[in-house]
Design goal:
Elements: H1 7-12, H2 29-34, E1 60-63, E2 70-71, E3 76-80, E4 87-88, E5 99-104, E6 107-112, E7 119-121, E8 124-125, E9 128-131, E10 136-139, E11 142-147, H3 167-171, H4 174-177, H5 191-203
Parallel strand pairs: 3-4
Antiparallel strand pairs: 1-2, 1-11, 3-5, 5-6, 6-9, 7-8, 7-10, 10-11
């Protein structure tokens, strides 16, 4: 006939030290822990999403070299060197009206305004481009990380269609971009036409 041990005697045995002590109960404590959430309750995993705070109501531009963040206070922002700009960057290599930021469907877009030293997104020159959170925005040689939360700004679903980089512009020749078209002349004609033209001049010399 076996000998029954009390719970205190079991917990004092070396082979049971450190193990969970069994508590006689009508409810299994492990099952109660797993099934404690409500049927329609999403698992939180102990993490709750908190709204991010930025320097401005629509985000901020954080200088890569350190310094105070620039608040994004409006949905349309002109960036330039002079006082009429919404975001004034007092650098000689920044144009008077360098670029414009516009908020569209919860995402920021940048458009270069024919600036002298260009605008880049993640080190690529752009004319118009969506600037996603944590992207690097280069205005002339001054680099910033744009920070914002699209959901806080009304974004839903997939991001709006992105614009292509200025690859097409870069493919065109320097002369074409400068407005200097190659003149229509003898060098543009096929060689056969040039030969026939020379032959005709030899046959009919001027008197």
């Amino acid at each position: 006939m076996g000998t029954s041990l009390s719970p205190d005697a079991i917990s004092s045995c070396p082979q049971f030290i450190g193990r969970r002590r069994f508590q006689p109960s009508t409810t299994n404590p492990w099952v109660a822990t797993v099934n404690s959430k409500q049927p329609n309750e999403e698992p939180s995993h102990g993490l709750e999403k908190k709204e991010q705070t930025f320097a401005g109501p629509f985000g901020q531009l954080t200088p890569c070299g350190g310094g105070d963040p620039i608040p994004l206070k409006k949905k349309r922002l002109l960036i330039g060197r002079r006082g009429e700009a919404d975001v004034q960057l007092k650098f000689n290599n920044v144009s008077t009206q360098h670029c414009r930021l516009t908020l569209e469907y919860g995402y920021w877009f940048v458009r270069d305004l024919n600036s002298r030293n260009g605008t880049k997104v993640d080190d690529r020159a752009v004319m118009r481009k969506r600037v996603d959170p944590e992207c690097k925005l280069s205005i002339a040689r001054h680099e910033y990380i744009i920070e914002y939360d699209p959901q806080q700004l009304g974004a839903y679903g997939p991001p709006p269609a992105d614009d292509d980089y200025m690859d097409e512009m870069m493919r065109s020749s320097l002369m074409d971009r400068a407005g200097l078209k190659k003149r229509d002349g003898q060098r543009d004609k096929p060689r056969s036409q040039r030969v026939s033209l020379d032959d005709s001049l030899k046959k009919n010399p001027k008197k």
